[in-house]
Design brief:
By secondary structure, the chain is α/β, with parallel strands linked by helices. A 7-stranded mixed beta sheet has the order 8-6-7-5-1-9-10. The chain contains 6 helices and 10 strands, in the order E-E-E-E-H-E-H-E-E-H-E-H-E-H-E-H.
């Protein structure tokens, strides 16, 4: 079905990063055995079997990545409200090319911020500086009038609270365009097992600042459904789109408490 025009206050997309790999995540299922024949020994001498389970996966290799992404972005722009915003989440592989393409499509005056999500996990190669950040490009459909709820921005602690007044230290300071935030913890409640899942904290901040309660958020690379959970948790509606059956299954299960019709 065709989506209506001007229904979304914000569009957030986290497309494949064109890593040239098949993105997948393996999980381990551990089951206790009754006959003492398990392959691993645990607490109290109990024996267990361990089975590898492959979670959702997708092919992340594109010859014409810019065409793949930009045709979808262009088709979705009509869904934005006049004061709406577009957020495109990428990493170092393609973000520079897509930034130029978005400038051509939307105009450079509509580019508002390059938000850096910085994290600290994974391997550290010894032949280059380790890549530990993603980039979120923010474009406003109308750079003179867009939704930006400054007071909804959660404050962060001062690094040297003794150098400011007690009132300022208690209130905290405004975040910048560099957001330090951990990845989704491996054993945390948030983890779905879907590869490349983004943390709720990042989407919570975007949605609270760039939309209002009752608004609708559109995500057409929905993946594990993080955008939907963040939107629903803050009184927003959501429209999620993905062509990967495993992503649809994971997101529907994750969002069953917010939108029972997803199941």
């Amino acid at each position: 079905p065709t989506l209506p025009e001007r229904f979304a206050r914000a569009i957030y997309v986290d497309p494949p990063f064109n890593t040239g790999k098949v993105q997948k995540r393996e999980r381990m299922r551990v089951t206790a055995t009754q006959n003492g024949e398990g392959v691993r020994v645990g607490f109290g001498g109990r024996r267990y079997n361990v089975e590898k389970i492959e979670s959702g996966s997708y092919d992340d290799d594109f010859d014409e990545f810019e065409t793949f992404l930009m045709t979808r972005v262009e088709s979705a722009l009509r869904c934005l409200t006049p004061d709406g915003s577009l957020f495109v989440h990428l990493d170092y592989r393609e973000v520079h090319y897509i930034k130029v393409a978005l400038d051509k499509l939307l105009g450079r005056d509509r580019f508002m911020n390059e938000i850096i999500w910085a994290y600290d996990y994974g391997g550290r190669p010894k032949n280059r500086w380790p890549s530990k950040h993603d980039t979120i490009l923010w474009y406003a459909l109308d750079p003179r009038e867009y939704t930006f709820n400054f007071d909804e921005m959660e404050r962060i602690p001062y690094m040297a609270p003794g150098l400011v007044s007690k009132e300022k230290a208690e209130r905290g300071k405004t975040p910048t365009d560099v957001w330090w935030h951990t990845i989704v913890p491996t054993n945390g409640r948030e983890k779905t097992g879907y590869p490349t899942q983004k943390p709720l904290g990042i989407l919570n901040r975007l949605i609270k600042v760039h939309s209002r309660p009752g608004d609708v958020i559109l995500d057409f690379f929905a993946g594990s459904g993080t955008t939907g959970e963040a939107a629903a948790s803050h009184g927003r509606g959501f429209v999620l789109v993905d062509n990967n059956p495993e992503a649809v299954r994971v997101a529907a299960y994750r969002l069953r408490g917010f939108a029972p019709e997803c199941v």
